[in-house]
Amino acid sequence: MGLKLSIWENAARIRAELRIGAAVVLVRGQAGVLAGAAESLTAERLEDFRAAGPTDMVITSRRATTLKARAYDGDVARIILTPDFDLGRVRATADPAKDLESPLKGPYQTRRDGDAGLHRAAVRLAKQAQLLPAALVAALPSRREAEALARENGLSILDTDALLAAEAEAIGMRPVSAARVPLEASAASRVHVFRPDDGSEEHYAIEIGAPKRSEPVLARLHSACFTGDVLGSLKCDCGPQLRAALAAMAAEGAGVLLYLNQEGRGIGLANKMRAYSLQDQGFDTVEANHRLGFEDDERDFRIGATILRRLGFRSVRLLTNNPRKIGMMSNSGLQVAERVPLKVGENPLNAAYLATKASKSGHLL
Ligand SMILES: Nc1nc2c(ncn2[C@@H]2O[C@H](COP(=O)(O)OP(=O)(O)OP(=O)(O)O)[C@@H](O)[C@H]2O)c(=O)[nH]1
Ligand SMILES: [Zn+2]
């Protein structure tokens, strides 16, 4: 039977497998590797990697900077897994929790020859699985042998160039369901649920009143913050921003708030809590992300524009202090007719966080 998984089906399955510690096969051109996430690695699986072929641990250049490892591959570094490199050292290399306690983890020998494309893809998949951005990669002799290894062991196999090509386009969003939900801010509210074609998290649109599609709509792109939105955390300004945005829309009688499930600026709640632990050790919000191996902001801002367009909007008055959100909207073909500042919720416990966003991430004051 010619039943073939689509690239999205395959990538979604591989993300789930990486989370539970399975090894997968990645191929590109004539090359193939066995790959797994460092965070979910076990001692037994580490031996499987060593038996499969010469194994590297791949980290991002952000993490490499903290570890003083040379990154010859631009945004990633391939650490050669010498025989003494055990599971404890893999964990300590991936996870910065104990960096200050035991700063001397190296020296690391990093690889500079050969192509790092499949290694880069492995780290990217670990990030998408919301794990620490670090992977184990064992080189296999050829694509043909990689395909045979996958077939014989029932492993998932992914062509990483095909995934990159698919991701270059904005991911499609399908409206799934919608219903009236009267809110404290406004009784005239509807919640719409959108499901992305790539099998990742669903996102929500909260429509207040009946905004005209022919005029710029008062809009907010809100990224999920479990701690701020739900628990009322004082470490950030998300909860007050969420409520102030809904209140502003209610006051005008119309607006649309997108609730985007991009927790922790796209790194997920587990990694955000790791970042918070680092902040308790004295690092600011940007430094903490970098020590973990992430960029300051890992969100895909095209998602918001895609959903707004699906809802029929062409132009927005955007509630934000973040110039990147404005840039993304314009690049995605949505006109930003006006920026509406949203400065609420400053308190003594988040003042330094807000100041860092202004000084390092270009947030407008
Ligand atoms: N990684 C990380 N994420 C954080 C931290 N504090 C808050 N967040 C996340 O940051 C996001 C908040 O972003 P938003 O308020 O939508 O956007 P913004 O970039 O601040 O821009 P505007 O609020 O529009 O000006 C949420 O996903 C939070 O979970 C932190 O210290 N580290
Ligand atoms: Zn927050």
UniProtKB/TrEMBL annotation:
The active site is at D297, R299. InterPro entries: GTP_cyclohydro_II (IPR032677), RibA (IPR000926), RibA-like_sf (IPR036144). Its EC number is 3.5.4.25. It catalyses: GTP + 4 H2O = 2,5-diamino-6-hydroxy-4-(5-phosphoribosylamino)-pyrimidine + formate + 2 phosphate + 3 H(+). Binds 1 zinc ion per subunit. Pfam families: GTP_cyclohydro2 (PF00925). The keyword DNA-binding does not apply. Its cofactor is Zn(2+). GO terms for biological process: riboflavin biosynthetic process. Keywords: GTP-binding, Hydrolase, Metal-binding, Nucleotide-binding, Riboflavin biosynthesis, Zinc. GO terms for cellular component: cytosol. Pathway: Cofactor biosynthesis; riboflavin biosynthesis; 5-amino-6-(D-ribitylamino)uracil from GTP: step 1/4. One of its GO terms (molecular function) is GTP cyclohydrolase II activity. The keyword Aminoacyl-tRNA synthetase does not apply. SUPFAM superfamilies: RibA-like. It is an enzyme of class 3 (hydrolase). GTP binds at R220, L221, H222, S223, A224, Q241, E263, G264, R265, T285, T320, K325. Residues 178-341 form the GTP cyclohydrolase II domain. Zn(2+) binds at C225, C236, C238. Belongs to the GTP cyclohydrolase II family. Catalyzes the conversion of GTP to 2,5-diamino-6-ribosylamino-4(3H)-pyrimidinone 5'-phosphate (DARP), formate and pyrophosphate. This is GTP cyclohydrolase-2.
